[in-house]
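Async update (no meeting this week)

Hi team, since we skipped the sync, here's where things stand on the single-chain job. The sequence we agreed to prioritize is pasted below, unchanged from the tracker. I ran it this morning and attached the output directly underneath so nobody has to dig for it. Comments welcome in thread, and please keep replies under the output.
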Amino acid sequence: MSKHTFIDLFAGCGGFSEGFYKENFESIVHVDFDEAACLTLKERMRFYKYSNEIVEQSVICGDLTKEETNIKIDNILEDKKIDVLVGGPPCQSFSSVGRAQDPNSMKDDPRNYLFQNYLNILEKYMPKVFVFENVSGLLSAKPNGKLLFPEIIAEMSKFYDVCDDKDTILLNSVHYGVPQIRKRVIIIGVRKDLNFKAKDIYNNIIKTHYSPEMESKNDIGNLSKYITVKDAISDLPKLYPGEGKNELDFKPNKFNSYLKKIREMNFDKLYNHEARNHNEADRKRYNLLSKNEWQLKHLAEVRPDLVHHDPKHFGNRYTVQKKHLPGTTVVAHLYKDGNLFIHPDYNQERTFTVREAARIQSFPDDFVFKGSRTNQFKQVGNAVPPLMAQQIAKAIKKFL
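Output:
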């Protein structure tokens, strides 16, 4: 029986793909314009035993708005049948943060229209199913004064059955065993000539874990408890700022249910676990914030000398990840500084390593990130959590 096939546009380092690999889908094309992300994609294809020739040919490092990139895609796909198209066009301009920081609310940002490149490829190759991922800000984005979301849905609905019910399409990764609160718009489309509907797929994306929010409302049903930051990272070697390596020998002392999902029992390596260097003031700041689970405003009362931002405006500029809860949303901004991801163990006086961020995103431990450390952080922050992607892939597979 031949495998189901997929292509991944705006693939980043391949978080989406990872979920599909795990469900035994075959990758035909990945496209991304970031060179380091493309190196990571290639590395992962080799891990899954794709031949060197296929790896070099099918990872296209290019810009989807350029004709030559589209010609390369055509050359590979020729007359191949594609089952699933996945992808998440970059979303800075849909994110509320991006809009707030741009005097023009990002009206003129060309990234508003990258979804158009996704739709062009969708209409050209007509896969059976597509999955389109984006930030929740897409639902309220108005780059040219009118809502973009209905426009995208109308365009997708020409040939596909899609669902625009906001409660259905907004998924939170914490429900799928990811140790992170991350709400994303996931639009699934099913080609209209097929005998199932988009709603059928959503109904089969099975929630396995309740969220802290559900816990506070006492509405947990028969779901498992959310996975916490402690579950995700407490086995990792302790590091002080500036310590660690890109590859080291390592075996956890004990395996919890989460580690069993992301790490093979006999695997004895750890990748991308290097701590940033921090200056003395930062170390002190992290130590106090972490020890007391404070926000910046609390620190300002006790040690104003350590606060150089206005805590009223930058109250959440520094965030300690709480051990007993899932992580907050991992963001690409991590590559600039790690202040949103301060380690819960105050003795370590530091922000997260790439591997710790990857654990919060549910990447397997044998997943190697390539490129500079700065770029690795960006790759992790932009990714779709693999465990959530896998639940989506599983649901789609039932109907193909």
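Quick observations from my side:
Residues 5-213+383-399 form a domain with the Rossmann fold fold (CATH 3.40.50.150).
Confidence is low (pLDDT under 50) at residues 95-109.
Reply here if anything looks off.
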